[in-house]
Design brief:
With about 375 residues, the chain is of the alpha+beta class. The protein is built from eight helices and 17 strands. Strands 3, 4, 5, 6, 7 and 8 form a six-stranded mixed beta sheet that branches. Strands 11-12-13-17-14 form a five-stranded mixed beta barrel. The longest helix has 13 residues, at about 270-285.
Length: about 375
């Protein structure tokens, strides 16, 4: 490609923060829950590059023509590929796109087409803009996308901390999982954690109904705890895992959980899962938990536990009826019965109309109102 720099390029990264930064000189944007993507265009050629430097054109073919129509002949943009579902962003629909069969990808692209949300401009023509301050890059990006139409969008952005705090609350119901903060005078630093991400943090009490062995310690180290919540009908649903234990804690958990493994499948609410696994193993079929399609080397088999212990975990937000990311173990709750670990304890954020996020009204980057894509 005839660009000021060529792919692959490591994207600029972020560090976690507990709160929005104070003071002047910050630009705030919604934190989009999608696939981080760098877009390189040179004439009729478009390259969609993932965060880890891999091409993604084959997984999102429906974006190529709209990007050719929306972007100038030679440029590099940073942003996110997202899919909008009925109530907001649908990350699970994105995961389904990473499929080896072209026919499957094409079918899904027609059923739930993806969108690209741009938030930074890194090159335009012969100009390498990475050393330019973000404030100047944002102005040029807004000019570039002034006439853009779906599925190519400009991310909202604001200098107003109060508005960003409001976004932090309202946008979550649309599937956005926080707010990004960036220095207006900052250059683009590939691979450096110069942005701040502020995400929701909450706790929930969950039933521990199983565990998985650590990949480097089968039989000696616990990898993760399988978490469950009861619905109104009394059914225990698998909602995610708690992980990120120290090596010492993983060894201690082996002994601590051992009594709960005795006759654990007898009357276990997830016994059908275990029975199906055994049956499919006998048939030589792929198991729903044996190896991950997103990570071929990852073993997702599990060990059942009597569902009698409760732990408190920290989580950021829900994706449907499951934790979006791995939860963080906080403490055991011996004072709480498992039957009280229900969905109705979770904080519910009403869905913020996603079309407002993809609205057509724009304000200048220097204003106090958000700039929005069409």
């Amino acid at each position: 490609m005839r660009l000021p720099f060529v792919p692959p390029l490591a994207p600029m990264l972020s560090a976690a923060s507990d709160a929005l930064p104070e003071g002047l000189g910050w630009l705030f944007e919604p934190k989009w829950d999608g696939f981080r993507t760098l877009v390189f265009r040179d004439g009729g050629e478009i390259l969609l590059q993932s965060r880890d430097g891999k091409p993604m054109n084959r997984y999102f073919p429906e974006l190529i023509d709209p990007l050719l129509a929306a972007l100038p002949a030679r440029c590099v943009l940073d942003g996110e590929i997202v899919i909008v579902g009925g109530t907001g962003l649908d990350f699970e629909a994105l995961l389904l796109r990473i499929h080896p069969a072209e026919s499957r990808v094409k079918l899904l692209a027609g059923q739930m087409p993806a969108s690209f949300v741009a938030w930074d401009l890194l090159a335009l023509g012969d100009d390498d803009l990475r050393e330019s301050p973000l404030e100047a890059r944002r102005v040029r990006l807004e000019e570039l996308l002034a006439g853009s139409r779906a599925p190519v969008h400009l991310s909202p952005a604001t200098h107003d901390r109060a508005l960003a705090q409001d976004w932090f609350q309202r946008f979550e119901g649309a599937g956005l999982d926080g707010v990004m903060a960036k220095r207006l005078d900052g250059p683009y630093r590939p691979g450096a954690r110069t942005m701040l991400k502020i995400k929701h943090r909450r706790t929930a009490d969950c039933v521990v109904a199983g565990f998985r062995w650590h990949k480097n310690g089968q039989g000696t180290l616990v990898g993760s705890l399988l978490l469950g919540l009861y619905d109104d009908a009394g059914t225990l649903h698998h909602v995610g895992v708690a992980a990120a234990f120290t090596t010492v804690a993983r060894r201690q958990l082996v002994d601590e959980l051992e009594p709960l493994r005795h006759n654990a499948l007898e009357g276990h609410p997830w016994r059908a899962w275990a029975d199906a696994r055994a049956e499919w193993e006998a048939r030589g079929q792929r198991l729903p938990g044996a190896s991950s399609r997103w990570n071929a080397g990852k073993d997702l088999s599990w060990e059942p536990l009597q569902p009698v212990r409760v732990c408190e975990v920290g989580y950021d937000h829900m994706q449907g009826d499951r934790f979006r990311h791995a939860a963080q173990f906080v403490r055991w709750r011996p004072d709480k019965p498992p039957t009280e670990c229900r969905y109705d304890q979770l904080e519910v954020t009403p869905a913020y109309e996603i079309l407002r996020v993809f609205g057509s009204q724009r304000e200048p980057a220097g204003g106090t109102k958000p700039s929005q894509g069409s």
